[in-house]
Structures are given as structure tokens and as C-alpha cells.
Design a protein that fits this description.
With about 475 residues, the first copy, chain A, is an alpha/beta fold. Chain A is about 40% helix and about 10% strand. At the A-B interface, helix 3, helix 4 and helix 14 of A face helix 3, helix 4 and helix 14 of B.
Chain lengths: ~475, ~475
């Protein structure tokens, strides 16, 4: 049984024990889109597949979404979302903060899709065929796409030639926003990197920190909640040993497919539950939301309430999981294979995780409520090579983007919700006057990028105010320097 | 007749009229190496051919030269030369400044060879075969090589783990040194970019500036020198029309091969002379040196003296050219095809010039002593495509490295000799407290990087003192921050 949390917006890349199979889950919106009034035109811009070499002259069309409703020309600002691992329309719909503040800044709003996701496929249906086609799916290439797209926008849109650009991104998109300012400071005057675990790499952050944070979230959710989850693993292992036990479990969790083997319990089901608690910690928002699944406000509290009020530990766990997966009551059963169902977004991130995004994670069952699972670089390398036929470069991101030595950069806001497991690998203390950390005590995964909500805790209200203030300063600096 | 000055250390890429053939010249040392006491070990480090993608997993061995004689460990500094378009031993031998100051800084000295030059061939003899093999010859890939090599050095050499690294480079190597600090500030605490024409790109610098500077150099060389050169082009065109005239010219210049056609004169010979004057302006050093050719001190003065004292204009030109090509008296004839003889260094730069290093140059015969030759981007694109089967990306370097918008960077010294034509595209005014321009009134092409010499003019002595002082400050800042 092993796990490696890696995929960013929601989730964990699961290295299921023994099989060497990488089965990442990727967020797929299930509920209604939050704000259908976000309107944009969909456009495409031709990019070289390889910006850094001339071995291929292939090109592809990158999709981007653009709204010029508030932009009045005359060098007004451009708010530019550095798209991450998924369909860009989903990020467009889930990044309400940009839409909320664009009118007051008279900003153009652009969401740029990340290559190899959504509709931005360099080789169409063959894009994921093999390393020769897929190998250009890297952060560096994506950043270069953004730089060229910005030049195109500024040179082709009337009144935008001198427009300052501010980058926004959440999660892996936040990493890209930060790295974009580091590498292309002539393209963007500053970046808001929300919940960007830029330090979740080899040697920078203790690999178990994410699971400690999740454990704290559940501790706070309800007294004894974490203890019950901690107990659940042994109980599952025990009950999974017998056919009768597995039948009981299948029924208790209303599983779509019965648990046939011990491994179905000790590997697949425990991994599924681990992912469930990980995801809950990411989306522990203060109001009902549908980021990964439709959920009530403060879902950990709700789930923990169910977990702790049950007399039986596993029945409590089942009730908690059911809330996460079936809050709307529309599901007739729970599917523990769900984390193994791959969308293209999952696949893409799995490849990135297996090539340059070596983001270790581990649990020990002591400092967290999970089970012992060390980070094993050797196994990771072997499994990635087997799965994707590429050799990961675990240290390259450190060299490319500086690791913890990034104070030569400027004008980056690193915001982190402290409920979010990914805050473990984030920058949570300011590094300089212009590398500003903002922590949101009651925030989960990039809560600040979401649209404002009456239920917002004071901490995210203040964070957004501070962000707006800093962006305003960047713009003032820019305009005063013209 | 057309010319495009482009190749950096010496010379011009010649687009010979009509043929579309790119025939760059590259500096090949002809005289003895200046300082044979520069000693180093030759080592190799394995690099990925492609740092930014996973489409290929090919690797190659990058050569580097290393001297640890003065390095005492304990985090002492590393002086790192970012190798440019040629055999690294030649840069090692011609960058005396690093050797001169290494002892006082107790610095390790490293010269890193640029991929696809010297002994650092990614695909051995096939490296230049076609774009599929040669396409990885880009500045971005070279910078990534440097970053990985530095990590390797620091992690493998005792006492170097915390060593600050200072980059040095001249000409294209200076561009790389500057860009290296911009893109990899965690790898180097600062860079000395000597005679680095980082602004000799589309739209940043008037394309004729280089030729104006050359003209000024010859004006100063001797009264009337530039006037005589200016007159020579028409005279050559006239005399080249007849067989008798060509015979006379062949004899006057002691050419190895007779001038057979008008084009031999109006294209090949005029281009050869243009290159000759361009090169002289680059190597107008205050003491005898053998950077491109063995030459006396202040060679332009010597050449101009011959040009102006002759009663006949063309005889004066012939005498001047002869001094440049045969100062040692060992040549029995002059070879105007010389600029078409390709070494691998020439070829590599020609490819770089034709892929991402679009560095326009032009002359008009009005603001310079040459003949009208506009910069023609369309023709450049077509000729490059024909010659190398790649489509140039004329604007990419601007987007990649920020064009004139580079003030987000820090700790770069841009030094320029004002006699040097390449200073036209250099940074000659400080951009901030830590982007410092140093101009050397009496300096030709990166004179400051050469070893100190009793004949050094005061301007280069002061420039080097200032450079040492700034490097000392960077080191103090670094050590005080540990």
C-alpha cells in the first residue's frame, strides 16, 4: 500500500502497491458552475511546440479566454490567468476573484490554457501517444507560451501596447504565476500565486507536512474525528481479511462494486479514503461549493460530525465518505475506483509529476492520522519510467526555479490558506518587501481566488484586500515609471 | 552585394548577394596563445540534450576546464566563464582577467564549453547534420547546461557547497553571462557581461550603429583614413569591371587566387574588406595581440597610416589589408575567400544567427564609410531557411530575455569598449544601482577581459578596478547573508 500525493488542484497520485500503476485523480466539476455570468470570447493563438529548440518546427493552437468588457484601452491593465492542469473554462469559472476586481481596475481578463490540457492539444488525439508527442508538456514550455501570448495580445489589441500585465494563478497555476514573474519579469509586473506549493520539491519541505495539516483540520473538525480516522486503517485491514468482512464493508459504504479481495480493501479502499480526506482538506470552504464535489459549508466539520457521532468507527467513516461523494443524494452507490478513473487532466498531471514535478509526500501514522508510507524516490523513478517511458528529473525544478533561493525575484504575492495541505510547500513568510506571503487562517485551497461570498471569513476578506492593495501598488509603480 | 554583421567575437555573417549562402567567419587563433601558464584540468559532465522537454532522453558530455589552485574551500568563490561560440580552451587562454584576479579572491576558475562547440558535441560527427540533431543549439539550452554544471560542481567539490558563483563572459559569452544572472539568479550572485550586445536585436538598436562606430574608429586612426575607405568601394566596382582591372587588383593585393569575375570584386572582395575593417575595429587593442590575427599595438592607427600615406587609394587599401592579414610576414598571398572558410565555430554561430540570434546590422554609406546595404528581414528569413532548414524566430530573444525591459534583474556589470562596433548594441548606461554600465573609452572588444598589460590605457585599468570592486561587494553581500 503506498500513496504519493501529488496532483495539485485536488489530489493524490496513487502509486498502487505492487502494480506500479500511476492513477492520479483530477478535479472534474460535478456541480453547477458557480457564476454563469462570467463571459468571454474563446480564441486561439499559434505557438511553437518547442520554444527552446529547433529540432521540430511543429506548432499548435493554444486556447485562451478573453473578456474586454471592462478594459478601456489606454494601457489599462491585463489580468492574466496562467492556466494549469485542466480545461481552462473550468479555471475561468472558478477564479471569481479576477472577475470581481476586474471592473474596478478596468482590466482586460485573460485565461490562458496550459498546453496539453483542454482544447490546447499540440498533436490532437496523438498528444498523449508517447514521449515524442507528449514530451513538450513541461512548465517551461507553458511559461514560454504565456510570454508569447502576452506579446501577441499587447501588439494586436488596440490600447494594449503599453498595458501592464498581472499574472494570477492557483495551485499549479499559482506555481506558474510565480515562476512566470521570476523568469519573464518583462512580461508581467507582478504575480498573485495562490496556494502555490513551489517548495513541495525534493529536500525543501518535509514530505509529511501535508498529512499533518490534514490531520489538524480533522482534529479541529470535531473532537476525536482524527482519532477515529486513525483507528480506521487497522480496522479496515482486519475486516478486509475475510469475505464476510468485505461483504459487510461493501454494504456499509454502499459500494458500486463489491470488495472481492483483501487488496481491494487494504490498497484500493484505503487509498480512496486517504484521497477523500485529502480532498476534503483542500475544499474545506466556508460556504457550499462544488469545487471537486458539491459540498456543504465547512464540509470537514459536517463529515467529522458524522464520523464522531456514530457508535461504530467504520460506520462513521462510511457516513463521512458518503457525505463527500453524495451530498446531493443523487448517487446510488460509491465508487472506490473513482480515483483511478482518468480524465486527460489526470493523465497530463501524472505525466508532469513523472517528468519534472517531483513533489514528494509521505505519511507516518504518528504525526498524522494516516498509515506509514515513506517517500521512496527510487520507486517513484522506476514507476514513472514504467508508466510514461520517461526518466524523471527530480532536481531540475530546483535548478530551474531556484528552490528556496528566490529573493532575486520581486513582485510576487504568495497566498496560502492554512487549512490547505498544499500550504505545507508554500511560501508562508515574506521573503522581502516585494515577495509577500499572505496567510489565510481559515482558508482552504486558494480560497482567495474564489469570488467573494457573504460567508467569507474575515481572514480571506483581509487577504483579498491586501492583494488588491499590492496589485494597485504594482500598477502605480508601473504607470509612474512610464 | 549584401552584408549582415552578426557573428560576435569577430565578425560578420556574409549573405553573399544572390547565392543566399551564409558564410560567417569565426575567430581562429593564429598567433601563439597569450599565456601558456593558465593551467586547468579538462573534465566532462553529462547533460540532457533537451532540458525543457522529454521528447528525447539523449545526453551528451559537456567539456569544462577547471583550476582549483587558488580555491581554498570553505565556500570560497567560483569564477565561472559562460562559454560562447567556440572551443573553450581558446576562451580560457584569452580571458586573462579571470586568471589575474582569481588568486586575490582565492577563487576556483571554471570555463564551461558551449554545447555544439569545441569538444561538446551532442551527437558527435552528426551534430551538425540536420535540424533534428542541431536544433538543440540554443542559448536557453546552454544556460541550462551552465546551471546544472554549477550544481554539480558545488555538490561534488569539497568546500564548494556554499560557494558563491560569479559569471564572466565576453561577446556572445557576455550575453550569456547577463542572461544567466537574469534567468538563474540562484546559480550566480552576479555576472560580468563584457562587450555583450544584448540589445543588438530587432527594434532595439538602429541597425547601422555598428558601422558608424567603425567609421569613427578609422576617422581617429588617421586623418582621411575613413574618406579613403569610403572612396574605395566605387573604385573597386569600377576597376572590377574589366579583366585588366581585376588582374591589377589581384596583383596589388597579392591575392592567392585571381579575381576572375566582376562579382569576385563587387561581392566577394568588398565583403572581405568590410569584414577586415569590422574585425580591426574589434581588435584595436593598445598592445600587440593575436586575438583574430597577430597584430601590432593600435592596429587601426597602423593600417590607417598605410592607407593614407599611399598616393593611390586602392594601393593604400591593399597595404592596410596586408598589414591585417600578414603582419607576421609569413603569408605568401591573401585569400579573400577566407571569410567563407568555415570552421565549426563559424557554422554554429551561423545556425544560431539563423534561428534565434536575429541581430540586424546595416550600412548606408552616409553615416558610415561603407556602402548602402539595408537590413532585410524577409531576405534574412528566406536565406536562413534555405541554408539551415529552420525558420528564424526574430522576436523570441526579446520575449525570452526582456529586450530593454530588464530592470527586474540585478547584479550585472555591462562593460563596453567604445571602440568596439558591438558596443552599439550594448548597455552603456547604468539601468539601476545593480545593473551597472562601465564604458571603456579606449577599449575595443572586451579588452577588460584580457590580462593586464603595461600598455593598458587608463580607462581599462579603471574599468577593471571597478569590476573587481563590484565583484567584491557581491561577495560581501553574499557572505553577510549566510
Amino acid at each position: 500500500m503506498s500513496h504519493v500525493a501529488a496532483c495539485l488542484v485536488c489530489l493524490s497520485v496513487v502509486l498502487t502497491g505492487g502494480t506500479g500503476l500511476l492513477t492520479p485523480r483530477f478535479p472534474r466539476p460535478k456541480g453547477p458552475v458557480l457564476r454563469s455570468e462570467y463571459s468571454y470570447d474563446t480564441k486561439y493563438f499559434t505557438q511553437p511546440v518547442d520554444h527552446f529548440s529547433f529540432a521540430t518546427s511543429d506548432t499548435f493552437d493554444q486556447r485562451y479566454l478573453i473578456n474586454r468588457k471592462y478594459f478601456e484601452g489606454d494601457g489599462g491593465p491585463i489580468f492574466f490567468y496562467t492556466g494549469n492542469e485542466g480545461d481552462i473554462t473550468w479555471f475561468g469559472d472558478n477564479t471569481g476573484f479576477m472577475w470581481d476586481i476586474a471592473p474596478k481596475f478596468k482590466a482586460m481578463v485573460v485565461f490562458a490554457e496550459h498546453r496539453y490540457y483542454g482544447d490546447s492539444m499540440p498533436y490532437g488525439k496523438d498528444s498523449y501517444k508517447d514521449p515524442r508527442h507528449l514530451g513538450y508538456l513541461t512548465a517551461e514550455q507553458a511559461l514560454a507560451d504565456f510570454a508569447r501570448l502576452i506579446t501577441h495580445l499587447k501588439s494586436s489589441i488596440p490600447g494594449a501596447a503599453d498595458s501592464p500585465v498581472v499574472a494570477f494563478g492557483g495551485s499549479y497555476g499559482g506555481m506558474l504565476a510565480a515562476w512566470f514573474r521570476m523568469k519573464y519579469p518583462s512580461s508581467v509586473i507582478g504575480s498573485l500565486a495562490a496556494s502555490a506549493p513551489v517548495w513541495q520539491f525534493e529536500g525543501l519541505t518535509p514530505c509529511g507536512s501535508q498529512y499533518s495539516i490534514i490531520t489538524q483540520d480533522f482534529q479541529k473538525g470535531s473532537p476525536g474525528c482524527d482519532t477515529r480516522i486513525r483507528k480506521s486503517w487497522d480496522l479496515l485491514n482486519q475486516i478486509g481479511q475475510t469475505a464476510a468482512g468485505r461483504e459487510k464493508l461493501s454494504s456499509m459504504f454502499s459500494l458500486c462494486s463489491p470488495l472481492n479481495t483483501t487488496k481491494d480493501v487494504t490498497v484500493t479502499m484505503t487509498q480512496w479514503l486517504l484521497n477523500t480526506w485529502f480532498n476534503l482538506a483542500m475544499v474545506d470552504y466556508p460556504y457550499p461549493a462544488s469545487f471537486l464535489e458539491p459540498l456543504p459549508a465547512w464540509p470537514i466539520k459536517e463529515v467529522c460530525s458524522l464520523i464522531t457521532k456514530s457508535l461504530d468507527v467504520l460506520e462513521g467513516i462510511a457516513a463521512g465518505a458518503t457525505l463527500y461523494y453524495n451530498y446531493t443524494g443523487q448517487a446510488t452507490c460509491l465508487n472506490i475506483q473513482e480515483s483511478a478513473v482518468s480524465s486527460l487532466g489526470d493523465l497530463g498531471w501524472s505525466f508532469q509529476f513523472c517528468s519534472e514535478m517531483t513533489m514528494p509526500s509521505c505519511s507516518d501514522g504518528v504525526h498524522d492520522m494516516f498509515f506509514p508510507e515513506p517517500w521512496n524516490l527510487t520507486a517513484y523513478m522506476a514507476q514513472c519510467k514504467s508508466a510514461w517511458k520517461v526518466t524523471p528529473r527530480p532536481y531540475w525544478i530546483l535548478q530551474q526555479f531556484g528552490g528556496k533561493n528566490i529573493t532575486a525575484a520581486s513582485n510576487i504575492i504568495f497566498s496560502n490558506g492554512l487549512l490547505d495541505p498544499w500550504s505545507a510547500g508554500g511560501v508562508t513568510e515574506s521573503l522581502s518587501d516585494s515577495l509577500v506571503a499572505i496567510t489565510i487562517a481559515d482558508g482552504a485551497h486558494h480560497l482567495d481566488l474564489r469570488s467573494s461570498n457573504p460567508a467569507d471569513p474575515q481572514s480571506v476578506i483581509e487577504a483579498r484586500e491586501q492583494e488588491v492593495e499590492i496589485i494597485r501598488e504594482w500598477l502605480q509603480q508601473y504607470y509612474s515609471g512610464l
